[in-house]
Amino acid sequence: KEFRNSIKPNWCPGCGDFSVQAAIQRAAANVGLEPDNLAVVSGIGCSGRISGYIKSYGFHGIHGRSLPIAQGVKMANRDLTVIASGGDGDGFAIGMGHTVHAIRRNIDITYIVMDNQIYGLTKGQTSPRSDVGFKTKSTPEGSVESAIGVMELALTAGATFVAQSFSTDLKELTSIIEAGINHKGFSLINVFSPCVTYNKVNTYDWFKEHLVSLSTIENYDSSNRMMAMQTLMENKGLVKGIIYQDKVKPSYQDLAHGYSKEALSKVDLNLSEEKFNQLMTEFM
Ligand code: SF4
């Protein structure tokens, strides 16, 4: 409850992003955070609005750049829990370079992608996660490009925490976000979050029919990278749960020389207007 603010989301009724917002708020409360321990950074897209809907520090950045900003926040204040967020277009098209390097850097932040396999904010174009044959305004004859297998790509880039979930599974999604926050290193959580307005193929029913829960696979071992890759390939990436976690590899924070042990800046969230204006003047 304490992570709610007074801003009403303007997502379309039924958009999967509502559940992601709720799951982040619940997970933050469950791991014992207070709003001023949390920073939520987002990129551009419908999902990018999420940083304004959670009571915390927030930064609504530019397209594809939530990760550089989030990493900067974490470097400036190691005490903050930092969540980067955005859509599949934001993170896996223009932002893909940042995604791969943040993964291999293993910096201690949680990246939550709301994957609806389409560009929603710009009214429905094919995204890097759209399947072959997907028809949109930008591909009226059907897309001829293969969708990026982001979970597989994360594994090969050296990821230490790779998970996938579905926005209707609020309980599972909340617990995965908690695990991602508690993970010491970079956690990538891809959430299938349907766009009910523009994606009429990858609907809630479609995901219910196609997603395989890792909890139903006998002897699945999330510490086994080879098993994780094989399971993803066998199921065309359509699995949900914690796919892979390496609890041993040190994070960037553990290894970086000269990383400040103290926060470089601390500001009370309940700023007076006068103090806010003063801060803005200092930054200008
Ligand atoms: Fe959600 Fe799609 Fe509406 Fe955007 S256009 S708010 S992604 S349902």
UniProtKB/TrEMBL annotation:
Any matching Pfam family: PFO_beta_C
Pyruvate ferredoxin oxidoreductase beta subunit C-terminal domain location: 195-260
Keywords: Iron, Iron-sulfur, Magnesium, Metal-binding, Oxidoreductase, Thiamine pyrophosphate
Enzyme nomenclature, EC number: 1.2.7.11, 1.2.7.3
Leader peptide range in chain numbering: none
GO MF, one annotated term: 2-oxoglutarate synthase activity
Residue ranges occupied by any Thiamine pyrophosphate enzyme TPP-binding domain in the UniProt entry: 44-191
Cofactor annotation: Mg(2+); thiamine diphosphate; [4Fe-4S] cluster
Top-rank lineage group of the source organism: Bacteria
InterPro entries documented for this protein: 2-oxoacid:Fd_oxidoreductase, OFOB, PFO_beta_C, THDP-binding, TPP_enzyme_TPP-bd
PANTHER family (alphabetical): 2-OXOGLUTARATE OXIDOREDUCTASE SUBUNIT KORB (PTHR48084:SF4), 2-OXOGLUTARATE OXIDOREDUCTASE SUBUNIT KORB-RELATED (PTHR48084)
Protein name: 2-oxoglutarate ferredoxin oxidoreductase subunit beta
Upper taxonomic lineage: Bacteria, Bacillati, Bacillota, Bacilli, Bacillales
